[in-house]
């Protein structure tokens, strides 16, 4: 395929992005520019709780890539609303995968460290045994399994502790409380990698770009690369350590004192894993991509305010 035909094929390729108003969806809309015709839809245009809406949308657009950052992420609420969580986290990705298989398209989906039990101190690899400890984690794992069972070409990116400058997340909560209080009690016995939504979007775009660039058959590439990958910032910290770093990087005039506490002092309906570390070696080995250290990403995020 000559260069002109490659450029034409790229321009005609449609990339469907769900949940465009979410943290990751918003960033994907920007990061995926140039890789095809990006169609980014919010819930009003594509309701993932409505199977008919999913089928109609995908069959109308006929995308070559479906990127699905949309999810039911209310971890504690899921404990009492499992049906709603399962509709978005299991049934919707299963249907997207079914439609992707029908089109020979690539489905890019996002999952979570919550599929593991959080025991031990090692960074989890993709082939480690899963054992979710709450409804949210269980539904995300079921979503992964449904995608794999569909036979569709897929990239499932497990990530953790996602934050950004929009929506609801730990960063924005800390910035707000940091200006209102003199001290904050923050959990210190849960360890993970705070991951900027823009990092997730940038690495996703870099992966897709590898398939797009100078490829005569994107579908063949997608089938070859299919699988689960861990995508988080490098390094790790506790929630208390993350809070301290936020206040230091934000340069608040009067930052609050962070008081480390155990998880038992902050009970929640859903059990959280104490170890959320994910090993990114497979991502690096397969695509040559290594996420920045979480502190570097935090600095970039706050500098972009």
From TrEMBL:
<keyword id="KW-0560">Oxidoreductase</keyword>
<dbReference type="Pfam" id="PF04321">
    <property type="entry name" value="RmlD_sub_bind"/>
</dbReference>
<comment type="function">
    <text>Catalyzes the reduction of dTDP-6-deoxy-L-lyxo-4-hexulose to yield dTDP-L-rhamnose.</text>
</comment>
<dbReference type="InterPro" id="IPR005913">
    <property type="entry name" value="dTDP_dehydrorham_reduct"/>
</dbReference>
<dbReference type="GO" id="GO:0008831">
    <property type="term" value="F:dTDP-4-dehydrorhamnose reductase activity"/>
</dbReference>
<dbReference type="InterPro" id="IPR036291">
    <property type="entry name" value="NAD(P)-bd_dom_sf"/>
</dbReference>
<keyword id="KW-0521">NADP</keyword>
<comment type="similarity">
    <text>Belongs to the dTDP-4-dehydrorhamnose reductase family.</text>
</comment>
<protein>
    <recommendedName>
        <fullName>dTDP-4-dehydrorhamnose reductase</fullName>
        <ecNumber>1.1.1.133</ecNumber>
    </recommendedName>
</protein>
<dbReference type="GO" id="GO:0005829">
    <property type="term" value="C:cytosol"/>
</dbReference>
<comment type="pathway">
    <text>Carbohydrate biosynthesis; dTDP-L-rhamnose biosynthesis.</text>
</comment>
<feature type="domain" description="RmlD-like substrate binding">
    <location>
        <begin position="14"/>
        <end position="303"/>
    </location>
</feature>
<dbReference type="GO" id="GO:0019305">
    <property type="term" value="P:dTDP-rhamnose biosynthetic process"/>
</dbReference>
<dbReference type="InterPro" id="IPR029903">
    <property type="entry name" value="RmlD-like-bd"/>
</dbReference>
